[in-house]
Specification:
Elements: H1 3-6, E1 14-19, H2 27-37, E2 44-47, H3 56-68, E3 74-79, H4 85-97, E4 102-106, H5 124-134, E5 138-143, H6 154-166, E6 171-176, H7 180-192, E7 199-203, H8 209-219, H9 225-233, H10 238-259, E8 263-267, H11 273-282
Parallel strand pairs: 1-2, 1-8, 2-3, 3-4, 4-5, 5-6, 6-7, 7-8
Helix pairs in contact: 10-11
The chain binds flavin-adenine dinucleotide.
């Protein structure tokens, strides 16, 4: 199903799950987790893709497995930074030949040694322009309720999202956030600027305190010290951390639903349990 059809009936809850190619190459374990995720009949499973195509083959293998064997609706992420036109063309054809209809179109984080990169595509907007002209794929895009760390201003960042919508993006998935106020404020400003595509909150049920610390450091995501302290309390017990993560994410989703959000994009960290329990709690 195309993104526009999935989100056309945006009056019931729509769930999507994000997974990444495991660094240790243990895709078997991931496929078992994906089979569990299937219990909730997600509208989409999205599969991340390394900037510069660092994990191109594993990412594509997972997409193929989802499409051909697990028979799940799959949306590959695709980053264009450091890629040249031929490389992008080849990947897009491969995706289309698999019968994939949707893609998450991204720039990707620029590596430190940017001068050794191809510069055919400088931003997600360049990739979107390319997809519009050269493929039938529908595309989703990224959005940042707490501003992209490199964007000059919050306003500039939202203007980029508006451009993405005007170029045909069907839906936006947000960067993970833990403070709903950021989403509410972002959503309101987007609406005032004329952005009316679904802006799907990115939810990450916490499963490890150290991982939480790393995410906050890397993405610049805001987190209240009270929340940090709450998870710190459980840091020595994996089981208690997972339980606390499920409780926190469930409450977060309940409030988002009250606000009007109808889609949830779960950053699953390749584990089904927490996201499935959050869904049980909110449905
Ligand atoms: P763009 O839309 O081109 O830029 C995003 C915003 O940042 C724009 O507002 C732009 O103005 C501003 N900006 C970016 N760079 C600069 C700069 N140098 N100077 C000034 N302003 C700047 N990354 C991966 O590598 N693989 C993935 O699979 C992946 N999946 C993601 C999924 C989601 C839902 C999200 C939210 C992010 C994901 N990312 C992924 C991270 C993403 O690639 C980075 O955040 C990247 O830096 C920006 O990508 P973009 O598509 O948002 O870029």
């Amino acid at each position: 199903m195309k993104l526009s059809e999935i989100y056309a009936k945006y009056n019931k809850l729509i769930f999507s799950f994000e997974v990444f190619p495991p660094k240790n190459g243990d895709t078997q374990n991931l496929f078992e987790e994906l089979a569990k995720m299937n219990q909730k009949k997600p509208a989409l499973i999205s599969v991340t893709y390394g900037a510069g195509g660092s994990n191109r083959n594993t990412s594509l293998d997972i997409v193929k497995e989802l499409k051909n064997h697990l028979k799940q609706p799959v949306m590959p992420h695709f980053t264009c930074v450091c890629s040249n036109k031929q490389y992008i063309e080849k990947y897009i054809r491969e995706i289309e030949e698999l019968g994939i209809t949707n893609i998450l179109a991204l720039r990707g984080d620029e590596p430190q040694e940017i001068d050794v990169c191809y510069r055919d595509f400088k931003s997600a907007l360049d990739l979107i322009e390319y997809l519009r002209k050269h493929s039938e794929l529908e595309f989703a895009v990224a959005a940042y309720p707490e501003k992209h760390p490199k964007a000059k201003t919050f306003d500039d960042d939202i203007d980029v999202l508006l451009k993405k919508q005007n170029l045909g993006a069907k839906v936006a998935y947000t960067q993970v956030f833990f403070d709903n106020e950021s989403y509410y404020k972002f959503f309101d400003i987007c609406s005032k600027k004329g952005i009316n595509i679904p802006i799907i909150p990115g939810i990450m049920p916490i499963i490890s305190y150290n991982q939480l610390k790393k995410i906050v450091e890397l993405s610049g995501t805001k987190i209240d010290s009270k929340v940090m302290n709450y998870f710190e309390k459980y840091k020595d017990s994996k089981e208690d951390t997972i339980k606390a993560g499920i409780e926190f994410a469930s409450l977060q989703c309940e409030k988002l639903i009250e606000f009007g959000a109808r889609g949830m994009h779960f950053y699953t960290l390749n584990k089904a349990k927490s996201s499935l329990e959050v869904i049980n709690n909110i449905t």
